[in-house]
Amino acid sequence: MSKFDVDEALVRKLAALLKDTGLSEIEFESEGKRIRVNSGAGAGAVHFPVATAAPVAAAPAAAAKPDGPPAGALTSPMVGTAYLSPEPGAAPFVKAGDRVNKGQTVLIIEAMKVMNPIQAPVSGTVKDILISDGQPVEFGEALMIIQ
């Protein structure tokens, strides 16, 4: 049986994503190897295909950023590629100045070949779109301003 090397940075990112999104579990699979991080009963347990587990060390508390995302910013819940329209050549989901309702899809982020609809967290007006179509985005990156 081959050794499964754990990418600690990936595990920490997955654990942070759980905390930031309120999800109870997240799973990542690549090349037949799978990592599952959950915040359930065994909080912070990492599960491998061979049923071994290792605790996830708590990520250090991030220092408060005085220059954090702008007020009303919709931030990326994941790393991926952002798309402003449902398919190439189609009209964008929203434009600056459009009124949106809470829960309305405003863009898509493709992550690991999965298209993830990103919804407006609040009702309001799209003040600015901070990314371009097809742009790679990082977790926590400001995507648009909705006020």
Sum this structure up briefly.
This protein is a component of the acetyl coenzyme A carboxylase complex; first, biotin carboxylase catalyzes the carboxylation of the carrier protein and then the transcarboxylase transfers the carboxyl group to form malonyl-CoA. This protein has 147 residues and is mainly beta. The chain has one helix spanning 8-21, and strands at residues 25-30, 33-38, 45-47, 53-55, 73-75, 80-83, 99-100, 105-111, 114-119, 124-129, 135-137, 142-146.
Tell me the CATH superfamily of the largest domain. Answer: RNA polymerase II/Efflux pump adaptor protein, barrel-sandwich hybrid domain
- Helical fraction equals under 10%
| Low-pLDDT segments, ≥5 res | 41-65
From the spread of the alpha carbons, the general shape counts as: globular
Structural class: mainly beta
The total of helices stands at: 1
Mean pLDDT: 78
Number of strands: 12
Q: Do you know the CATH architecture of the largest domain? A: Beta Barrel
Organism: Dongia sedimenti
Keywords: Biotin, Fatty acid biosynthesis, Fatty acid metabolism, Ligase, Lipid biosynthesis, Lipid metabolism
Pfam family, one: Biotin_lipoyl
Function: This protein is a component of the acetyl coenzyme A carboxylase complex; first, biotin carboxylase catalyzes the carboxylation of the carrier protein and then the transcarboxylase transfers the carboxyl group to form malonyl-CoA.
